[in-house]
Design a protein that fits this description.
The structure holds 2 protein chains of 2 kinds. Chain A is α/β, with parallel strands linked by helices. Chain A has 2 domains: 227 residues, Rossmann fold (3-Layer(aba) Sandwich), CATH 3.40.50; 33 residues, no CATH class. A 6-stranded mixed β-sheet of chain A has the order 6-7-8-3-9-10. In chain A, a hairpin with a 2-residue loop joins strand 9 and strand 10. In chain A, helix 3 packs across helix 4, helix 3 packs parallel to helix 5 and helix 4 crosses helix 5. Chain B is globular, with a radius of gyration of 20 Å. In chain B, strands 6-7-8-3-9-10 form a 6-stranded mixed β-sheet, with helices on both faces. A 4-stranded antiparallel β-sheet of chain B has the order 2-1-4-5, covered by helices on one side. The longest helix of chain B has 16 residues. Chain B is α/β, with parallel strands linked by helices. In chain B, helix 5 packs across helix 6 and helix 6 runs parallel beside helix 7. The chains are: A alpha/beta, B alpha/beta. At the A-B interface, helix 5, helix 6, helix 10 and helix 11 of A face helix 7, helix 10 and helix 11 of B.
C-alpha cells in the first residue's frame, strides 16, 4: 500500500505552522525513519498518515484514499500507529483486552482475533503477562503492549513513534527484530527516532526534517554523509558514521559488520 | 561520600528483594554511571542512596547505608534531602507546577528549608548559572523545552547544595540537544564543583565519554564495577543485558576475524576508536 504526501502544510488551531509544504512518496514495504530535533514537525507529519490530522493545504493519499475523505476509524485497518507514550494509548484493564480491542473493532471472527493476539503477544515477548493490568507492568513493558496492540491488527502500514526510548538493550534488540519481521512480511514501517544507531541499522531510507520541512531524504548512507545539514538540525550521525568520517572512509557503514568490512577491505559479507 | 555495606532491600508486599547484598564505596567528587536492564534494581539503588528507601517506600532494608556521614536509616528524610538530591526521569514529575517563574520554582525547596531571603536569592542565582538557565529566570517553568525543564529540576535540587546528586535517567525524555545540555552540566558539577554524582543512564556512548566509573546491576545484584573501559568491554556481561558501544563491537568483530593487532583494551569512546582503528 503506497503513501503519497503532496505539498502538505498544517497549521495548528493556535496558529503554529508545523508543516510547510512536505512532499514524500513511500512505496509499499519500505522502511523509513523520520529524524530531526524536537519541534521539527515529525509527529505532526505522521499523524496525517492515519487521518488523525487533516491537511491545512496539500493532501495525503494512503492506498488511493485521500485522508480528507475518510475517518481515522476507517484508516484503522490500513495504518497502525504506536504512540511514543504508551499511557496515551492504553486504557483497558488487562493486557489481553488491550490487544484484542483493535482486531475486534475490525469485525474479525473470534478465531482470527485470538490467533493475531497470540502472535502479537509472542512477538513482544509478553505472553506470560496476558492477564495482567497494564499499569502493573514497567513503562518499557507497557510500550511493548502498545506495540502488540498495533501488530495484532495486521495493518499494511505500521508507524512507530520513538520506539526505543526507555528501552534497555534487550528491549531495543527486540524492537529491531520486530521491524525486520514486519519488513520481511511486506509491511511498510515508518519510525520517528532520535536513536541514530538504531535508525542506521534497521531503516534503509532516512528523512531529515527541520522547521516543518524536509531537509534531506534518501538512502541512509547518503543522508548521513550530509554532515553540515545534519549539524544544523542537531542530528548526531550514528557512532560508526562519525568514526568512519574521522577515518576518511569513502563508503559509510550502517552496521558494525559493514564497518569492519570497509576498514579491512574485505570483499564479501562476513 | 556514599557507603553501602551488605545492603539488601525488599519493597512492601514484594515477593523477593529488589537489591541483594550490595556493598559499594563512592568517594567524594566521583561521577558514577549506573547501568543494567529494566528491573535490575537501578532506580531502587538510586532511591536508597537518596534515602527515599526506606523512608518513603518503607519495606525492609538490611545492611547499612551512609551518605555524607549520615546513616540513612536513622536520619529523617528532610535532613537527608540536604545531603543527596534526587532528579527524576521526567522533569514534569519533579517541578511543583504551582510556580509562575523558574526563580520561584527553584526557591520552593529552599523555602521549605527555612533559608533566609537574601541567602536564598544568591543560592538560586548560583544554581541557575551552574546549569546555564539564568536567562530563563522569569519564564514559566511549564513553558520550557524538555532540556530546559530538566535543567530547572536540577537547579532546584542544586540550590539546596547537597554534596551528592542522584539522577534517574535524566535524559530519557530529551532530544540530543537537551541530553547534551544535561550531561555537560552534570559533568561540570562533578569536575569543578566536587559534587559526587550517581546517574542511571542507558545511552552507553554518553556513559563511556562522561563517567569515571560504571556500576552494573542485574537482578538486584552488583555484577560489575570499574572504569568504562573495564565494564563496557566485558563480554561476559552481554548475556545480562549490558551492552557495548558500536566502537567496542567493531573492535571485537575485527579481533574475531584476526585483524586486531593491538594489545590494549578495546575502545569504548569515539576518540579511542579513532586512535585504535587508524593504526
Amino acid at each position: 500500500m503506497d503513501l503519497q504526501i503532496e505539498e502538505l502544510s498544517y497549521t495548528y488551531p493556535a496558529g503554529i505552522e508545523a508543516l510547510r509544504g512536505v512532499s514524500l512518496t513511500i512505496q509499499s514495504g519500505a522502511r523509513v525513519a523520520i529524524v530531526g530535533q524536537n519541534g521539527a514537525g515529525k509527529t505532526t507529519l505522521v499523524r496525517h498518515l492515519n487521518g488523525l490530522l487533516k491537511p491545512t493545504a496539500g493532501r495525503v493519499i494512503v492506498g488511493g484514499w485521500d485522508t480528507r475523505q475518510y475517518t481515522t476509524a476507517q484508516f484503522a485497518a490500513r495504518v497502525g500507529y504506536v504512540f511514543q507514550n504508551p499511557d496515551d494509548q492504553l486504557f483497558l484493564s488487562n493486557v489481553n483486552a488491550e490487544i484484542q480491542f483493535g482486531p475486534k473493532k475490525l469485525g474479525w471472527d473470534p478465531d482470527r482475533v485470538a490467533r493475531h493476539v497470540q502472535s502479537a503477544l509472542q512477538q513482544v515477548e509478553l505472553e506470560q503477562f496476558a492477564a495482567r493490568h497494564p499499569y502493573d507492568l514497567s513503562q518499557g513493558q507497557r510500550k511493548r503492549v502498545a506495540l502488540a496492540a498495533v501488530l495484532a491488527m495486521d495493518t499494511p502500514i505500521v508507524i512507530l513513534d520513538e520506539p526505543t526510548t526507555g528501552q534497555d538493550l534487550p528491549g531495543v534488540e527486540l524492537i529491531g527484530k520486530i521491524v525486520s519481521e514486519l519488513s520481511r512480511r511486506g509491511k511498510t514501517v515508518i519510525t520517528i527516532t532520535h536513536d541514530m544507531d538504531f535508525c542506521a541499522e534497521h531503516f534503509e531510507r532516512v528523512v531529515v526534517m527541520g522547521q516543518g520541512q524536509v531537509l534531506l531524504d534518501g538512502p541512509a548512507p547518503q543522508v548521513f554523509s550530509e554532515t553540515e545539514t545534519l549539524a544544523k538540525t542537531y542530528v548526531d550521525p550514528p557512532q560508526l558514521v562519525r568514526l568512519a568520517n574521522q577515518l576518511k572512509f569513502s563508503l559509510l557503514p550502517m552496521t558494525v559488520e559493514e564497518f569492519v568490512r570497509i576498514r579491512y577491505k574485505l570483499e564479501s559479507s562476513i | 561520600m556514599i557507603e553501602l555495606d551488605k545492603v539488601s532491600y525488599t519493597y512492601p508486599a514484594a515477593a523477593g528483594p529488589a537489591l541483594q547484598d550490595i556493598s559499594l564505596s563512592i568517594p567524594e567528587g566521583q561521577f558514577c554511571a549506573l547501568i543494567g536492564v529494566n528491573g535490575a534494581g537501578k532506580s531502587t539503588l538510586a532511591y536508597t542512596i537518596a534515602g527515599f528507601v526506606p523512608h518513603f517506600y518503607h519495606g525492609t532494608l538490611i545492611g547499612k547505608v551512609t551518605v555524607a556521614n549520615l546513616d540513612t536509616q536513622t536520619t529523617p528524610l528532610h535532613e537527608l534531602v540536604t545531603r543527596a538530591g534526587l532528579i527524576f526521569q521526567n522533569p514534569f514529575n519533579q517541578i511543583s507546577g504551582t510556580k509562575y517563574t523558574v526563580r520561584e520554582e527553584i526557591a520552593f525547596g529552599l523555602e521549605n528549608l527555612g533559608i533566609a531571603r537574601t541567602k536564598m536569592l544568591a543560592r538560586i542565582d548560583a544554581a541557575m548559572s551552574i546549569v546555564g538557565i539564568n536567562d530563563l529566570a522569569e519564564r514559566s517553568p511549564l513553558a520550557l523545552s524538555g532540556g530546559q525543564m530538566q535543567r530547572v529540576a536540577i537547579a532546584s535540587v542544586l540550590a539546596m547544595q547537597p554534596p551528592v546528586l542522584v539522577l534517574d535517567e535524566p535524559t530519557s525524555q530529551l532530544d540530543p540537544i537537551g541530553s547534551r545540555e544535561v550531561f555537560s552540566a552534570v559533568r561540570a558539577l562533578s569536575q569543578t564543583g566536587g559534587m559526587t554524582v550517581v546517574m542511571i543512564e542507558h545511552k552507553l556512548e554518553w556513559v563511556a565519554a562522561f563517567a569515571e566509573r560504571v556500576i552494573a546491576l542485574s537482578a538486584g545484584r552488583l555484577i560489575a564495577d570499574g572504569s568504562p573501559e573495564q565494564v563496557l568491554t566485558d563480554e561476559s556481561l552481554k548475556g545480562l543485558g549490558i551492552g557495548q558501544t558500536r566502537y567496542t563491537q567493531a573492535a571485537r568483530m575485527a579481533e574475531e576475524l584476526g585483524y586486531w593487532r593491538r594489545k590494549d583494551a578495546f575502545p569504548v569512546t569515539l576518540e579511542q576508536a579513532i586512535e585504535a582503528f587508524q593504526s
